[in-house]
Specification:
Number of strands: 15
Shape: globular
Mean pLDDT: 75
Oligomer: single chain
CATH class of the largest domain: Alpha Beta
Distance between the termini: 29 Å
Largest sheet: 8 strands, mixed
Number of domains: 2
Number of helices: 11
CATH topology of the largest domain: Trna Endonuclease, Chain: A, domain 1
Length: 356
């Protein structure tokens, strides 16, 4: 079986909408009724949701309609699913068609294994938990979860452009996984001023940089250089490099650094809270209490989270936290997509090492 025949879906459980005991994945929104009578068209699902739940925000309506469409029409029998509930990741296979049962939108699942989340890497767990969408395809770390079921998964080869490199055309060559960014204090970025390398050229994972001397250099530079307002601008630039559209209101009333990040029209907006130092549980609770139903929050700090703050985050499935070392790792991963002013502030150069 090739990768194209193997699909893994992440499912976000909310309340009683998920039941391992009953052998299902299930979503709520009972007012929609039986969705199998709708045309297999995303616009029809969106129109139905709009008519039944007109008070939901536009981004959430689109995200919910998309998840329900995937539940009804895109999941196939035999597809793999992964769901985190509590500290456990449940893995199984879809075993039947869509049903509207007891006010829930259901797909039967044969649950195969229940594994502590600590057995998976941090990046793998982020992929299946950090998206605000309730049902989506797992891509980057699918192999890690499938391996737990004894399913082989071959990671795709990184894209290369040898012809472009030889001909000197403008098409950027993909950075091979063997490449590493090395700090060169005092040296400007090799990229021409005012031009950023397309984000698609970044091939390394954030985890590949975690704990390195380069990551420590980046974090020290950010802590030393950024003021409160420039931290706000830098965070907005980093999120843009990651593919988000950013709204920077002058003052939201939540705190002076708030911004809103939107991945695309299928994702609900994410409310972003910034802190320069340690984040306390009261900071996390403040953002959590400000979220409207169906909204998501992101807390970013150049410091760390107190133990009580981390406990509050564990109990808040709609909140995501990024500490100082992870900010540094993400900065390195998306460095080539940052504005020139930030690459000048954090001078790095790319070097290549043997892939051995």
């Amino acid at each position: 079986m090739t990768n194209s025949n193997i699909r893994l879906w992440a499912v976000h459980s909310l309340g009683d909408a998920f039941s391992v005991e009953q052998g299902t994945i299930a979503f709520d929104w009972p007012g929609l009724g039986d969705l199998s009578v709708l045309n297999p068209d995303r616009d029809d699902f969106r129109a139905k949701f709009d008519s039944v739940y007109p008070d939901a925000n536009a981004a959430n309506r689109t995200a919910v309609a998309g998840a329900l469409y995937r539940l009804v029409h895109e999941l196939r029998d035999g597809d793999y699913v992964a769901c985190l509930h509590g500290e456990t990741v449940s893995l199984g296979t879809v075993s039947g068609p869509y049903e509207f049962r007891d006010g829930l939108h259901v797909r039967p699942v044969d649950w195969l294994r229940h594994i502590p989340q600590s057995e998976f890497s941090r990046d793998a767990m982020r992929e299946i938990t950090c998206s605000p969408v309730r049902l989506f395809a797992v891509k980057r770390f699918a192999g890690e979860f499938l391996a737990a079921l004894g399913v082989a998964w071959v990671e795709p080869e990184p894209v290369k452009h040898p012809a472009a490199a030889l001909s000197g055309t403008e098409t950027p060559a993909a950075i091979p996984v063997s490449a590493s960014a090395v700090a060169a204090p005092g040296r400007p970025s090799a990229t021409a001023p005012g031009r950023a390398v397309p984000v698609s050229a970044c091939a390394l994972r954030a985890a590949d940089y975690s704990g390195t001397d380069t990551a420590r250099f980046v974090l020290d530079t950010l802590r030393r250089t950024l003021t409160r307002e420039t931290f706000r601008q830098f965070a907005a630039g980093l999120l843009r490099a990651m593919g988000y559209t950013i709204s920077l209101p002058p003052d939201s009333g939540l705190n002076e650094y708030e911004m809103t990040a939107l991945r695309d029209e299928l994702f609900p907006p994410v409310l972003v809270q910034l802190r320069a130092g340690e984040v306390r549980d009261t900071d996390v609770a403040r953002l959590r209490d400000a979220l409207a139903p169906g909204s998501y929050g992101l807390v970013v700090t150049l410091g760390d989270f107190s133990e009580r703050a981390r406990q509050t985050l564990k109990q808040s499935p709609y909140l995501r936290a990024v500490d100082g070392p992870e900010v540094a790792a993400l900065t390195l991963k998306y460095y080539c997509g940052l504005d020139e002013r930030y690459r000048a502030m954090i001078p790095l150069r790319m070097v290549y090492v043997p892939d051995q």
